[in-house]
Amino acid sequence: MRKTICILPGDGIGPEIMAQARKVLDRLGARQGCTFACTEALIGGAAIDATGGPLPGDTVAACKAADAVLLGAVGGPKWDTIDPAIRPERGLLGIRKALGLFANLRPAKLFPQLRRACFLRPDIVADGLDVMVVRELTGGAYFGEPRGVEVRDGVRVGYNTMIYDEHEVARIARVAFEAAMRRSRRLCSVDKANVLDVSRLWREVVIETARDYPEVALSHMYVDNAAMQLVRDPAQFDVLVTENLFGDILSDEAGCITGSIGMLPSASLGADGPGLYEPIHGSAPDIAGQDRANPLATILSVAMMLRHSLDMPAAADAVEAAVSAVLDAGWRTGDIREEGCRMAGCEKMGDLVAEKL
Ligand code: IPM
Ligand code: MG
Fold this sequence. Notes:
It is built from eleven helices and 14 strands. The chain is an alpha/beta fold.
């Protein structure tokens, strides 16, 4: 069996964490008699430096030709003052759009071994914390037209358009209902239907879609309340579905309350074609090149890739079990310092997981 993976290391800690992912893939390939053929391509600041733009055409072509795409992170202070039209982040948004990756799955789970690292009071997470945020990824204010900054009657104005058509809402709702069917069959749709017209349509279409999923208990929540409920009583949630901008914010919140943004993977999927997998943390330029990054979010993204794009669920389980075993043995990276733990750098953490495989 041969699978092709396009690796986009990107910026900051991207190259270091990607090296650990490759280590795990090599080990797994050897064990499972499978070849993971990896190609590398440029994105973000690295692409700007080399080619003048954050998403070269070659990169899009390499991604489309692969079975799956694995991305590190993009951005950093070096490119903060660059023309907004070619910022590193535009590379990420561009590849999502080019591959039609409308569904972003962001599981936020508290590892039992990391209970003490959780930001929430122990009584609040007594029942654990395991939320799946399903974020719409190619619509809403991120891509809506018109958009811009201009001068009107001598006054500068900036604007974006939060826009969805019913088909865009229905297809992401379907992904969320399917996810809920595989979990505990509770789905909460998050919107701002008390204020935004676009949210009124969102809610209407989600309710229509629910007719095909009578087993799923559907609820609705305004986004401000959802942000509050996530820290007040996160166990009430199983799957959350929401539009692009709300999902960007809520997925960071859901991730960070687990205490370890360095542990959280994500998958971005389209109707067909390769999926894209990336850790949800950013490029962390402050620790780049120092062998201090936590590679586990990336390694867990590899597990999601094996499950969702490469049809290798047993291998995905094996990777997750290896991560869990390394945590059981007390190993932590600098982002999750705990009393009495054993500290590992990025390289070492990658080695430990590969060994457990
Ligand atoms: C994310 C990031 C991106 C987003 C940025 C880097 C463009 O915050 O993946 O959540 O806003 O989608
Ligand atoms: Mg974000």
